[in-house]
Amino acid sequence: MGAKSGWSVLLGAAFLMATSAIGPGFLTQTTVFTQQLAASFGFVILISIILDIGVQMNVWRIIAVSEKRAQDIANLVLPGLGGLIAILIIIGGLAFNIGNVGGAGLGMNVLFGVSVETGALISGAIAVAVFLVKEAGKLMDRFAQIMGGVMILLTLYVAITSSPPVGEAIAKTFMPDKVDILAIVTLVGGTVGGYITFAGGHRLLDAGIRGKQAIPQVTRSAVSGITIASIMRIFLFLAALGVVSQGLTLDESNPPASVFQLAAGDIGYKLFGIVMFAAAITSVIGAAYTSVSFIRTFHPKIEQYENWIIIAFIIISTLVLVTIGQPVKVLVLVGALNGLILPITLSTMLVAAYKKNIVGDYKHPLWLAIFGGFVVVLMAILSVYTIMQSLPKLF
Question: Any idea what the CATH number is for the domain that residue 29 is in?
Fold first, then answer.
């Protein structure tokens, strides 16, 4: 693999992870938390970035060194665990993909005036088309890079037009007025929770970047993925902060759209349509690809027909959205369960890092293991708390 194609794969994996994280929920959460915490939300972003990098560096390293996908590693740690994780990932991926397809439909609605359902059908067809191409992996990488770039540049433009108090944002990032633990958990879960943790790691494995010799490349790609997602988060935070600090009120039914509109007028509203579509369509592709990668090794037929199973995954998500709509109660429950997937998968990876039958003579850095253990304990406690808070909403 040449240096150019090697870097292209690393960047592709980074953008796949980042754009999988940047979905409709990402846009809404960032805007709502900025409205609640103002400049102090910068501190939440900073802490979540540090935790995210710790998670990704642990997980991607162990996948690369073991040269196995997460479900196969889990089955070697404890027989049957890989199957359980795969089921959790697929249920979560499918539920979130219904929301992602809806987000893409909303983006189409803003841009072209078509109904959200029609927009969802068109978006589903575009996502399916990516996996009908022979070199689907390369097209997926390129698509994620282009859409990711478009989102970041347009959000930067809106951030500049909203004239945020940058000095205050920097100061409160390190000296916040208040700390919201739930916001930190939501951001970490949304950036590296569920299937997202493995999107880039599994993509690198598919592209042949594996083994101890690949650790520097894998680390670079993991940090790049978090950096890309974080740049988007920071620009959106600044855009929302600029609007909120002017005393303007956001529309509760669609907070991110009102940020774009209040900052840049009708043009801003159209830009929101592009950003929402780009964020949602890349999340549809990332969720489908990664979810199916969790059952790929369970049977040779799944590997043989992988692209067709991914296409079926996208079609089911689209049809559920068009016929039933977004099942809010299901999404609330799955969102809470998604937070629990991270402690389970990360703790499994940390155990695997010290099993010779999985990683051979590889020595996992102690500081990374300690950091990973801290994230496991923190996210487990806070996820259980979140689930207890969510249950009354369901019944």
Answer: 1.20.1740.10
Domain count, the chain: 1
Query: What pLDDT shows up at residue 258?
Result: 94
* Contact of 24 with 106, CB cutoff 8 Å: yes
Closest-CA residue to 211 (of 64, 358, 355)? 64
For residue 368, give its domain range. Answer: 3-394
Q: What is the pLDDT of residue 292?
A: 93
Residue carrying structure tokens 């633990």: 181
Between vectors from CA 253 to CA 249 and to CA 258, what angle results, nearest 5°? 45
Q: In the prediction, which pLDDT does 5 show?
A: 55
| pLDDT interval class at 340 (50, 70, 90) | confident
Residue 48 and residue 33 in contact, taking contact as beta carbons nearer than 8 Å: no
User: pLDDT exceeding 90 applies to what percent of the chain?
Assistant: 69
